[in-house]
Amino acid sequence: MDNSAPASGAYKGGFGGMFGGGGSEYSNTTLSGVPLTGMNPISPYLNVDPRYLVQDTEEFILPTGASKTRGRFELAFFTIGASCITGTAFGAVNGLRLGLKETRDMAWSKPRNVQIINMVTRQGASWANTLGSIALLYSAFGVAIEKARGAEDDINTVAAGTLTGMMFKSTSGLKGVARGGLVGLAMSGLYALYNNWDHLKGTTPIHY
């Protein structure tokens, strides 16, 4: 009786090994030239190099040449819609405050309720119109500047914010235009600074 056995961790595989034929030997440490040190597979057919299971990069299904982030034109719809909703909510709260203040000497009655509701709806519509117009101007300037420069970066953001402020206050004379431009420049600059904060600290790269 032959008591010899294959070396530890080796398996004579294939159907030939089952029926006595000579088959190739598989090792727990090497499979087809791929090192598998430290693994303890159940079967040589389940040997997998763990390095192939690690994804170091993000995976996207995009057309060739497409960007991984949405452009300004795509973001314009979200920006305008969000601004209108925010303006409506803020205006409604402000209208409720003004309505309660203006009718504080009136007893709770139907006329007072109607007056408060009218103030809420008026303020909500006014603020929604204002913020929506600003968002529309900002998005239009941003898209136009991006197309003209052929690049998307913080210069577009600051330039669009400055032009938006100037255009929004264009009916207030030169001083009003200057003030609007400064406000737009300050707000867009703060947003650009916030957007680049991690990059400025040197922690993560920025993606536009």
Task: Summarize the helices and strands and which ones pair or pack.
Layout: E1 11-12, H1 14-18, E2 25-26, E3 30-31, E4 34-35, H2 72-102, H3 110-149, H4 154-168, H5 173-195, H6 197-201
Antiparallel strand pairs: 1-2, 3-4
Helix pairs in contact: 2-3, 3-4, 4-5
Family: Belongs to the Tim17/Tim22/Tim23 family.
InterPro entries: Tim23 (IPR005681), Tim23-like (IPR045238)
Organism: Tachysurus vachellii (Darkbarbel catfish)
Characterise this structure.
The protein is built from 6 helices and 4 strands. It is mainly alpha-helical and 208 residues long. A two-stranded antiparallel sheet has the order 1-2. A hairpin with a 2-residue loop joins β3 and β4. The radius of gyration is 34 Å and the shape is extended. Belongs to the Tim17/Tim22/Tim23 family. One of its GO terms (cellular component) is TIM23 mitochondrial import inner membrane translocase complex. One of its GO terms (molecular function) is protein transmembrane transporter activity.
